[in-house]
Amino acid sequence: MPALTNDDLAKVLEDVVKQLVDVFREQQVQTLQAATSQRAKFEYEMLQHRPELEVLVMSSESTGNYVLFALPLLGEKPQWDPKNLIEAEDLDSVYIPDGFHAPNFSVTTNGLTIFIGYPMKEEAKSDAAWPLLVEWPARMLLSSQVTQTPPSSKGQSSVELIASCKKMFLQQWRRRKDFIAELRRHVIVLEYDAVDFSQVFFMLQEQLNDQAPLRILVLQLQFTAAFFLTNCMSDLQVVLLDGEADTAPVPVALAASSTPPSPDPIAHSQTCASQFLESTRKSLLRHLYGE
């Protein structure tokens, strides 16, 4: 019998691990099916055909034994391939936010995972909240701060919870994405966060009058959680960069103004971007010329 190569050994080990994982998953489902809670079993029936569903039976002092369902909040991982996009679409579309319908998760970026828990016993009458949480990737800190999720899984079915959490997330996420897309139509956007759309670097050209020198300015806009609560421009963090590594960015304070909500998200983004640029230019004039 020929000796196994390193690749052969790795393949054998991989197969063994897969078999162990499959056995563990089957045991978890069998434990769930033996539970007395019809609610937990009903929720499993609703979710069992969803891709990447994981089932884990756990125990806690407050809720006792419960089953935890874990699955991607956005369904299957969105595929975003710049090479294919260049072949199928206009070259410029690779660089603009309009093409993103979900966060641009790469193979090295964890996706959004929602965890929903239900008690294993039918007679469980504990007042403790049933487990419900969303695990956010490290690069989606802002979304984790501004996305409101129900405190417990008790009041809604798992399907309703997934739809509700997904809607709440995408609503705020698209608001930032559309804002940056609109901003790009007015200024030169140098770089932006393509996962969470939490920040953008852009360039402005300013000239006080015909005799004054033309200034090319690079700024960074950082969205904050406070902005999505107040809708006030002064809660946006804007800094002026000069390109020197040993020079600290200069904060640019915006006026305390807000944009009324609009049922049309595109129109709202246009108004917000226009108001933001106007406020930014006024602040820059005060900073540069004392006016």
UniProtKB/TrEMBL annotation:
<keyword id="KW-0131">Cell cycle</keyword>
<keyword id="KW-0498">Mitosis</keyword>
<keyword id="KW-0156">Chromatin regulator</keyword>
<dbReference type="GO" id="GO:0006325">
    <property type="term" value="P:chromatin organization"/>
</dbReference>
<dbReference type="GO" id="GO:0051301">
    <property type="term" value="P:cell division"/>
</dbReference>
<dbReference type="GO" id="GO:0005737">
    <property type="term" value="C:cytoplasm"/>
</dbReference>
<keyword id="KW-0227">DNA damage</keyword>
<keyword id="KW-0053">Apoptosis</keyword>
<keyword id="KW-0539">Nucleus</keyword>
<keyword id="KW-0677">Repeat</keyword>
<keyword id="KW-0833">Ubl conjugation pathway</keyword>
<dbReference type="GO" id="GO:0070552">
    <property type="term" value="C:BRISC complex"/>
</dbReference>
<protein>
    <recommendedName>
        <fullName>BRISC and BRCA1-A complex member 2</fullName>
    </recommendedName>
</protein>
<dbReference type="GO" id="GO:0006302">
    <property type="term" value="P:double-strand break repair"/>
</dbReference>
<keyword id="KW-0234">DNA repair</keyword>
<dbReference type="InterPro" id="IPR010358">
    <property type="entry name" value="BRE"/>
</dbReference>
<comment type="similarity">
    <text>Belongs to the BABAM2 family.</text>
</comment>
<keyword id="KW-0132">Cell division</keyword>
<keyword id="KW-0963">Cytoplasm</keyword>
